[in-house]
Amino acid sequence: MKIATMLESFIGYFSDAASRIFALDRNEYPATGIQPFEGEIDKKHRRSSH
After folding, report:
1. Cα 40 from Cα 50, distance rounded (Å)
2. What are the pLDDT digits (tens) for 10-47?
3. What does the DSSP assignment read for 1-50?
4. Is 0.85 topped by the overall pTM?
């Protein structure tokens, strides 16, 4: 009986891990890549064109 319980918990442990590894993507990462600039340019640090 004890062996059957241990085997069941062992299989359950690895099946849970496998289901988390191969599950559909549920991660909510922020958007990456080129993002449009929506701020304002600081006039004091702007390069002059002379």
Report:
1. 22
2. 999 999 999 888 887 777 777 777 877 888 877 776 66
3. -HHHHHHHHHHHHHHHHHHHHSSPP---PPP-S-----S---GGGPPP--
4. no
